[in-house]
Target: Sporulation protein
Amino acid sequence: MINRVLSILKIGTPRVDLVLDTQEIVPGEKLFGAFHLYGGWRTCKIRRLECDLVITNLNEKTQVVEPIKTVLMSQVMKPKERREISFHYCISSNEIPLRSEYRYHLKTRVVFENNVKTFDHDELTVAN
Model:
């Protein structure tokens, strides 16, 4: 019961942080960085890591989700363990509208056993 409450409150649970070399989108260029995984208080099993590009049109209040990376895994993460997984994504100017009326975010999720999830959110800006 206590473990369930701690899990709901996200106390002592593992976390993820996407660390990018730059927060700026340049059409035709690549974004580089790494996913940093930090273990929690207990041993846990990682099922998958997902990263999506979320594009929001401020004028029309619409949202588009572009899947970027999904890493399926079946790994055990020990308490306080740290892992790093490399990240790169090529920004295609043909597929993604790069305009000032849009907002761009990278949403990262790590899914653990029993469908427990942890999130990270990184905002990107368009280079002029």
Remarks:
- Residues 2-8 form the longest helix (7 residues).
- Residues 42 and 75 are 14 Å apart (CA to CA).
- The radius of gyration is 16 Å.
